[in-house]
Amino acid sequence: MTLAYLLVFAAVLAVSYLIYITRQRTLQVRSDASLATRIQPIDIEAFRNLIDPAEREYLRLRLPGPEFRAVQRKRLRAMAAYVKTAGRNAELLIDIGEGALSASDPHAAEAARQLIDNALFLRRNARFALYRIRIALAWPDSGRAAVAILHGYERLNGSAMLLGRLQNPSAPVRISATS
Amino acid sequence: MLQAHSLLWHYLWLAPHLFTLVLVVLVLRTDFRRHYPFFCLYLTLASLEGLCLYALDISPKISPINWWRAFWGGIVLEGMLKFVLIGELLHHLLRSWPSIAKLGRNLVSGAGILLVFVAAIAAAFAAPDNAPWLVGSSHVLLQTIYLAAAGLIVSVFAVAAFFHIPWERPAFGIALGAGLVWCEHLALWALIAGGVVRNRTWVDFANMGTYHISVLIWYYYLLVPEKKRPSKTPPKDRSDDPPSDPPSASSSGAPQDHEETLNDWNRELERLIHQ
């Protein structure tokens, strides 16, 4: 009997989740126009420096152990902030691409499809990289937590610019910035 | 009102199946049949099964045990089609996104294995029933099928939400309708198989009413066209960008300036990639 009640509880949770997903989808369609303005450009070169193994190795050789770990934790937190922003940008680009999938221009539709695929790949990598960064925070000597993110983000940047150029040449979508 | 063979009871049994057949006829005229062949098959068979069971139920020539035999056969056939339908929906969700397709399939397959274990445990702990074997076993079988099917469809939604995978409108509508009715059926068949509820007419009304709602959801998502989203993004005012954003990369100005900016960016990215 307990099992029956557990299954009923699970079913109620599942229905609530489905209703929540449907509600989110409806709201997403309504707020579509403001998506591009919510993209936060990332300084990709600063990010590249942050994840550079040579930089980490240099710090490890120059600093005493406890100090190196403290610095490395700060670097990892900064890395996590970059990765979170990259993941959020990927979400926004998926939404932008989704809106452009049904475009009458086949080039724009194909660019949108390519953008979404790249953004999904980046979002997946961002999720996994965040887990690895959290583990690395406990063990700061482990490196290369977010290298996959960098390559994914560079590929995504090209796709976003291409779609932005096809959709509206006067306002290309930018997701990266240099310092 | 909530009694077997009342007017509402007849309506709720017949109407969703008739509406479903009309929906099948309407979607068969379009390209939909080619994209969702198993959903069309599922709708057709589920409707015909429901109508046949109705005819058998009101016919005085059919004994209860024969009705339950027909019901059992329908459960098995429809149950198999449910899992094929979930596969079809997952295929539509992931087919355009090769970067995430394998991981998505593996996650849903993993959820499926887990659900089979949970369903087997739930079936093993089902309350004993004094009713004939055919009746009791159909309750447990229904609980097992709906536990696996509802769990799988929710896991498909969870994977899509976790990775932010965009849904096609028809696939979303089909999954939503199926998910709602399967979750509701899971709850009620779990109560019946667990011995909490037995021989209550309101269960039939709840099941038939929820299926009716699902059919209406399918009508909405398959026949009402999607609202077009604005295809152009508004020009962005970069004045409130973070400090890392260089003024030289502003998006305002003539198109040739943007072209030059894009070229600068591509050159810089190429340099970074091949560093």
Keywords:
heterodimer; A: 179 residues; mainly alpha; 2 domains; B: 275 residues; 9 helices; globular; disordered C terminus
The low-confidence parts of chain A are: none
What is the mean pLDDT of chain A?
A: 77
Average predicted local confidence, pLDDT of chain B: 83
Helix content of chain B: over 70%
Percentage of residues in DSSP E strands of chain A: under 5%
Give the chain pair forming the largest contact, with residue counts. Answer: A-B, 73 and 68 residues
Approximate shape of chain A? flat
Structural class of chain B: mainly alpha
Q: Secondary-structure element order of chain B, as H and E?
A: HHHHHHHHH
N-to-C span of chain B: 76 Å
Biggest sheet strand order of chain A reads 1-2
- Taken from the alpha-carbon principal axes, the silhouette of chain B is globular
Overview of the molecule:
The complex is a heterodimer of chains A (179) and B (275). Chain A is an all-alpha fold and 179 residues long. Helix content of chain A is 77%, strand content 2%. Chain A contains six helices and two strands; from the N terminus they run H-E-H-H-H-H-H-E. Chain A has helices at 2-30, 44-51, 53-62, 65-100, 106-138, 147-167, and strands spanning 42-43, 176-177. In chain A, strands 1-2 form a two-stranded parallel ribbon. Chain A is flat and about 55 Å long. The model of chain A has no long low-confidence stretch (mean pLDDT 77). With 275 residues, chain B is mostly helical. Chain B has one domain. Chain B is built from nine helices and no strands. At the A-B interface, helix 1, strand 1, helix 2, helix 4 and helix 5 of A face helix 5, helix 6, helix 7 and helix 9 of B.
